[in-house]
Amino acid sequence: MDNELPGCARCPFEPQGRICQDEGGQAPPFCPTVNKAQVIEKALEELKKPEILEFARQASIQEGEGYADRELGYARARPVKPRITEIIEFAGKMGYQKIGLAFCIALRKEAKVVEGLFAANGFTVVSGLCKMGRVPKETLGLRDDQKIKIGCFESMCNPIAQALLFNEEKTEFNVMIGLCVGHDSLFLKYAQAPCTVFAVKDRLLGHNPLAAIYTIDSFYRSLKVPTS
Ligand code: SF4
Fold this sequence. Notes:
Number of domains: 2
Order of helices and strands: HHHEEHEHEHEHEH
Shape: globular
Number of helices: 8
Largest sheet: 4 strands, parallel
Number of strands: 6
Distance between the termini: 19 Å
Bound molecules: iron/sulfur cluster
CATH topology of the largest domain: Rossmann fold
CATH architecture of the largest domain: 3-Layer(aba) Sandwich
Strand content: 5-15%
Mean pLDDT: 97
Low-confidence stretches: none
C-alpha cells in the first residue's frame, strides 16, 4: 500500500497510543495528523462559522452524554443511549422543529414508529417514501430484466425527489431510514438540511451490515477473495 496515501484504517498502533490522541503518541508514515496539517487547519477554519461551530459543539456534547460513569474513568464509562434517543436529543439541542424523514418502502413500519416518536417529542415531521412520484424504472434506462419485479411496472427509488421535497418544506434536519446504497448518496447530495442516518439498508443481514464484517473469518471468509 502507498505510504503517501492517508490511511488511518491501516494504523498499526493502539488507539490511546496514536499521535491523534496523544501528543507523544506514535504515527505511521501515512498519518494525516503529521502529513496533512493544512487539512486540519482548513477544518478548523470552518469551525469559525458560528452555525458550524454550534452544530459540532452540540454533536460532541451529545457524544459525551452517550456514556454513564465517565467520572469513574475511561475504563468504566459505559454507553447508555440507543441511536434513536441520541437523534431526538440532538435535534432538541439544536432547537430544530421540523424534521424530514426519508425512508425505504421496505421499512415503512419502522418509519411509522420513528415518526410517532419524533411527534411525541414535539417535532413536526415531513416524510417521504423512496418510491414517491411513481416514476417507472425505465426512466433510468433499466431493462425489464434489471428490475426486481420482472415483467411488471416498477417504481424507481427517487432520492432526489425525497431531498427536494424536504428542501421545499424547509426541514431543518433530515433522518434517513434504510435508503439503498447509491440512493442514499443522491439523497445526501441534494438535501440542503444536515442529515443523519438512523438505519442503513442491508437486505440480507437485517440492516446490520457489520454482521458480515464481524464474521469475516468464518461465514463471510469468501469476502476476502477479490471478486475479479
Ligand atoms: S491520524 Fe495518524 S496516528 Fe491517528 S489513526 Fe490516523 S494514521 Fe494513525
